[in-house]
Amino acid sequence: MGAAMIDAATVWQERRLGRTIVKTRRAIVDLDDILPNDKQPRIGPKEDPELQRQIEANEGIFEPLLLEPHPTLGDKFRIIDGDRRWSNSKVLVDQLKKPQYRQLPAEITDHTLEDEERLRVWIYIHRQRKEWDAKEKEMVACRLVELVGRASAANILGITVREVDKLVDVFRLAERLKNIRDPSASITWAREINSINKNLLPPSVLDTIVEKINGKLITNSKDVRRLRAILKDPVAKDCILSDGTSINDALEKLGEPAPPRPNGLAGDLGAIVASIRKHPWTALAELRGNDDAIRTIEEAEKLLRELKKALKT
To answer: Does the model's pTM come out above 0.70?
Structure first.
């Protein structure tokens, strides 16, 4: 450990990163002389077994890290870009005991960048790599607002403040959607919900829609798109905002046919649920105290619990 190993023939070179020009030099840096950036725009887990396999297959990281002199620790460097490559190299060295991945190729700037300059560089690099996955753009916008405020975030991203606000709203809404089969689809659902006219979707209605999704009473993106028509109709809207009602209940009030049920066991279970819902509660109340009915319900409960357990495992 210690200072970076720099070739004597190394010279400073200018590197253009969008509107930002930085001077850098090439070096080999020890893993422990590199520290992560606490203002990294990308949040979430960094460890990735697939990336670790790629590092091993390439006998090291393929693309050098982009580093800057650490602002307070003179013999250390801070990551501008390459946090995931560094994190997974650290896993290989510290956890998997493979010290051959300790020395990392790097490109080091001649000075510590200003916060906005560093963020602008990071965003330019990631856009060039086309690494903006399904949730990345919204996540980065939200993080930028936290770090530098709405106006600076808009300037860095090259969009308007209004567009930044929309990205932040979508990301925060997606974070509230907890019970979707494919978690990566939450951003698509959030975009769809956020595009509904705000007059139809005040905070109380939005909260109910989120509860319906998390309670699996709204189960796919097509259901989300149907919310526009439902919220425009007073009767259907009242239905969807009631406790325990599903999207299909509201569609029936709207006069639209419910989507076709799947074949097989899933379809049969759906038909049973629909059949129960067709009976008014006054009719169901007449079964109170009926031992045969209670016994049948208990048998159904037992079967459904066993089925649920089998499907989850």
So the answer is: no
